[in-house]
Amino acid sequence: MSIIQNFTKKIAAVAVAAAALSAVTAAVEARPLDVIKQSGEVVIGVFSDKAPFGYVDSQGKYAGYDVYFGDRLAKDLGVKVKYISVDPASRVEFLVTDKVDIILANFTVTKDRAEKVDFALPYMKVALGVVSPESAVITDVKQLDGKTLIIAKGTTAEPYFEKNHPKVKLQKYDQYTDAYNALLDGRGDAFSTDNTEVLAWALVHKGFKVGIPSLGDLDTIAPAVQKGNKGLLDWINQEIVNLGKENFFHQDYAATLAPVYGKTSNPDDLVVEGGKL
Fold it and tell me: Which of 1, 26, 110, 183 is most buried (CB neighbours < 10 A)?
């Protein structure tokens, strides 16, 4: 056997081993509902840099709309909660590899994602928005042709612009913080993500304006669990129905979003109660 043939066989063996390891990693079984209760702790993936939905406050504690909901889930489960920071692109991975039990990170329901994870009933509705400097505000998506649009990897903005507006140059970042810093530094002409997020960001960053407040389809945001974790999924669905009877998500909005949006937003434009649109 020649040296080249031997080397080729070794490379093939390594590739097979890597594929096998990847398959094992991807097949980590989720903790069922009874195991979560017995452990005394539920692990929830949230954002740490997406105020006012999921962020770390000045005291180093997780806060925001999603965290308020997560705290209630833990309370009604009768367990403590452990929050783990996730990036937009890692949300599916963290469920598949059982790093978290639940994702509550502004997770928009899409057909592609629903093939990989199980979504519960929705608790919020959202579309895309575009924020840009007031000195060169973008008010129509056609103005972005040939320009640089900043996006966060793994968000719905990525496939939307790739499919519908291929002339737009996409500048992608893993973290929301990095994406917003790129906009502040002038590395792009505009930034697009959920309209709820860009509206909140523009309110506290003078010199920027949401020139396109709603773009694309109206989507829903929902909790997600690992594919096939039916017991936990059913429990969350029933919990959302029960919480709807007490207008819980309007209370959540009042505590976490109203201080940011003020009178600029109607909670009924964002909030979904009882999983019913």
Answer: 183
